[in-house]
């Protein structure tokens, strides 16, 4: 039996009511889902922020620890290392010569040479340090450090120390001035001697030669002979 018009109106109203209720439920469900998603997002962000904070703190701690260790290492090195000013030689100082075995350590230092006194008439050999090595023989090649000054005023005119290298030459065969040839033969290796040499056994008195003239004084260290 078909529905009456009044019944049809009731059914339509009921259907619209159900549709509105269903739409409301769906909106409510969507809102709840959105709230849950937002809450989950906030929790994730909070966790991420907390982890980032922990990481930053860890990095800062590591940096402070490293800096502290480096400071400690620097202090230990500074305490253990000797002062450069106490051990390092001057930049313009020549290297120390190689001394013979058993030689007096004073041979490692340039001597101070003063002027002579009075009139020098003959070759004079004055031992300053007595070496323990073999005696220099005529014809041998000897290695020496020396300082040469003018006998009268002590002004230096030559020195092997200035170049930082000892001088080597044959002795007693005319390669050097007669005062050296005569004065160094027989001197023992490891010795320091003072040679007071009159002009005639040195470079003479001719100023035009360009060489030191007049009587001269040398202090010579004999480092080797072979």
Overall average residue pLDDT: 77
Share of helical residues: 40-55%
For the record, the CATH architecture of the largest domain stands as Roll
Q: Structural class of the helix and strand makeup?
A: alpha+beta
What does the radius of gyration come to?
Answer: 51 Å
- Structurally, how many domains make up the residues? 2
Number of helices: 4
User: Major sheet: size, sense and barrel closure?
Assistant: 6 strands, antiparallel
For this structure, the CATH topology of the largest domain is Chitinase A, domain 3
Distance between the termini: 148 Å
Number of strands: 6
Shape: rod-shaped
Q: Low-confidence spans: pLDDT under 50, at least 5 residues?
A: 1-6, 74-94
CATH class of the largest domain: Alpha Beta
Strand content: 15-25%
Order of helices and strands, N to C? Answer: HHEEEHEHEE
């Amino acid at each position: 039996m078909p529905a009456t018009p009044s019944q049809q109106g009731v059914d339509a109203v009921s259907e619209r009511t159900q549709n509105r209720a269903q739409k409301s439920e769906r909106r409510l469900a969507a809102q709840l889902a959105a709230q849950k998603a937002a809450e989950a997002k906030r929790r994730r962000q909070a966790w991420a922020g907390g982890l980032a904070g922990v990481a930053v703190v860890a990095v800062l701690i590591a940096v402070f620890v490293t800096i502290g260790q480096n400071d400690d290492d620097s202090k230990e090195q500074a305490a253990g290392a000797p002062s450069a000013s106490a051990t390092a030689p001057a930049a313009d100082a020549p290297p120390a010569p190689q001394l013979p075995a058993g030689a007096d350590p004073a041979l490692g230092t340039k001597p101070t040479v003063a002027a002579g006194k009075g009139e020098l008439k003959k070759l004079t050999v004055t031992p300053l340090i007595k070496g323990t090595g073999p005696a220099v023989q005529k014809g041998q090649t000897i290695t020496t450090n020396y300082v040469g000054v003018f006998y009268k005023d002590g002004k230096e005119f030559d020195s092997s120390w200035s170049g930082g290298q000892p001088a080597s030459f044959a002795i007693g065969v005319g390669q050097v001035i007669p005062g050296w040839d005569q004065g160094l033969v027989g001197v023992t290796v490891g010795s320091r001697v003072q040679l007071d040499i009159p002009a005639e056994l040195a470079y003479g008195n001719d100023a035009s030669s360009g060489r030191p003239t007049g009587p001269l004084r040398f202090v010579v260290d004999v480092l080797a002979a072979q």
